[in-house]
Design goal:
Elements lengths: L5 E7 L5 H12 L2 E4 L26 E2 L12 H18 L8 E4 L3 H8 E2 L13 H7 L8 H11 L1 H6 L5 H14 L3 H15 L2 E2 L2 E8 L2 H17 L2 H13 L28 H9 L4 H40 L5 E7 L6 H17 L12 H8 L7 H6 L3 E8 L5 E5 L1 H9 L1 H33 L1
Parallel strand pairs: 1-4, 1-7, 2-3, 2-4, 7-8
Antiparallel strand pairs: 5-6, 9-10
Helix pairs in contact: 1-13, 2-3, 5-7, 9-12, 11-12
Catalytic activity: adenosine(37) in tRNA + dimethylallyl diphosphate = N(6)-dimethylallyladenosine(37) in tRNA + diphosphate
Organism: Thamnidium elegans
InterPro entries: Dimethylallyltransferase (IPR039657), IPP_transferase_euk (IPR030666), IPT (IPR018022), P-loop_NTPase (IPR027417)
């Protein structure tokens, strides 16, 4: 039996059923859940952070949930420390148990990937992430600077990362700047050293792990996400938002420094729902809107929250496909195994998700041969087949290019700048770019025609 500690992880998009499967795995294997959702660490606010109701947890222990104060922020380095301690505790408790499995579940895929492999985050002592307190005390001037000034600073100390980020992406620009000032090294240099380490030594997994990726086609998932938003509103979302806003007004909850410039981009304030209903609650607090106008604003905000939820789910799948899974497939060992479970049809959940996951987890704990991940379903075969070895994230960052389209112009009449090869390729295929190119070709032909007619007239005049 491997000396490495064993864990299971459950990943997937928002609203797909990750918490449900985690509880089902724990029931079958006497396991315990470790939360890996950056918002569910906060006390209370169960609806806006989508915590699983207590009655649905069926007595299963849940760790790293419901413990952080509203105004605090939780960093990946804190999660790694806390989660590793919980994993160790669960394994110690399992000595007297026949089976016991830590099940890490959550929508913050960055947390989970950082837990599975060493050196996939800036986490070494000399390169560790700064805590919010350290950042605020060491670099308070950052919160007072406008984004263009921050971008200019980053361009000087780390032009590679500045080239990668959009000049208006304040959050990413700030993070790269903070990494430089905290570590004394450009973030791009740290990323390069990580890549060189991977190429020489391979990835170093922390645990022997199963990754259960619950997947549904977006066309089937999106209506479920919309219904989930409606349910959140029906079960008390507005009460939570109203209470939180009141606490801010009364001074019981302090907003993070730089909130106005980084509005809704840090800590709890990132939660989908709070910012989307800002206009509605502002109108309520003003008290001068008629009911019909309020209802219109409410509907618009609800649609905004549904759209944001769908975008978030899409971004979660993108992370899994482009970062987490290629990392697992390109590793030089087989200590982290990925299984894709088809949750497109909720009526077949027991057959396609629960039973398959439990069966695989039991084999995993007993060190018995595991099934081929691509053999579970047609969906699994299709999704995993798309994940052929690709450029790793580090190489993508270090070879990132900006492209300038001299044809298309901004509102200011300047050449349009595209960030990255993917955005450039999408732009070239875009309707606006193709339409404008067609317009230019027609204009060139028109000018050529007029020029030829003018030349003919001049020749005719000369003859006469």
């Amino acid at each position: 039996m491997s000396a490495m500690r064993k864990i299971a992880t459950v990943v997937g998009s928002s609203g797909i059923g990750k918490s449900k499967l985690a509880v089902e795995l724990c029931k079958a294997l006497s396991g315990q859940v470790i939360n890996a959702d950056a918002l569910q660490v906060y006390k209370g606010l169960d609806i806006i952070t989508n915590k699983m109701p207590l009655n649905e947890r069926e007595g299963i222990k849940h760790h790293l949930m419901d413990f952080l104060e509203t105004e605090e922020e939780y960093q990946v380095t804190s999660f790694l420390k806390d989660a590793s301690q919980k994993v160790a505790t669960i394994h110690i408790e399992s000595i007297s148990e026949e089976k016991q499995l830590p099940v890490v579940v959550g929508g913050t895929n960055y947390y989970i990937q950082s837990l599975l492999w060493n050196n996939t985050t800036i986490g070494k002592q000399e390169n560790r992430e700064a805590s919010p307190d350290e950042i605020d005390s060491n670099f308070p001037e950052f919160d007072q600077l406008e984004t263009p000034e921050l971008y200019q600073r980053l361009s000087k100390v780390d032009p590679v990362m500045a080239n990668k980020w959009h000049p208006s992406d304040r959050r990413k620009i700030l993070r790269s700047l903070r990494v430089f000032y905290q570590t004394g090294k450009p973030q791009s240099e740290i990323i390069k050293s990580q890549r060189d380490h991977y190429e020489t030594h391979g990835l170093d997994p922390r645990y022997k792990a199963l990754v259960f990726w619950i997947y549904s086609d977006p066309q089937k998932l999106n209506p479920r996400l919309d219904a989930r938003v409606d349910q959140m509103i029906e079960t008390g979302l507005f009460d939570e938002i109203k209470d939180l806003r009141n606490q801010v007004v009364q001074g019981h909850v302090k907003l993070p420094k730089g909130f106005e410039l980084e509005k809704y981009q840090r800590g709890l304030w990132q939660a989908i729902g709070y910012k989307e209903f800002d206009a509605y609650f502002f109108a309520l607090e003003e008290g001068n809107k008629d009911p019909a106008e309020l209802e219109k604003i409410k509907v618009e905000c609800t649609d905004r929250m549904k759209a944001a939820t769908r975008r978030y789910a899409k971004s979660q799948i993108k992370w899994i496909k482009n970062k987490l899974l290629p990392t697992a497939l390109n590793a030089k060992n087989n200590d982290v195994i990925v299984y894709c479970l088809d949750a497109g049809d909720l009526e077949t959940w027991d057959t396609n998700v629960r039973e398959k996951a439990v069966e695989i987890a039991k084999l995993f704990l007993m060190d018995l041969p595991l099934p081929d991940p691509a053999s579970l379903s047609e969906t699994a075969s299709q999704m995993l087949a798309q994940l052929n070895p690709v450029l790793d994230t580090q190489t993508k960052i270090l070879t990132w290019n900006k492209h300038t389209c001299e044809t298309c112009k901004t509102d200011k009449g300047e050449p349009l700048v595209l960030n990255g090869d993917q955005e450039w390729e999408q732009h070239k295929k875009g309707r606006h770019h193709r339409k404008y190119l067609k317009h230019l070709r027609v204009e060139e032909k028109r000018k050529a025609y007029l020029e030829s007619k003018k030349k003919e007239q001049e020749e005719q005049t000369t003859i006469e």
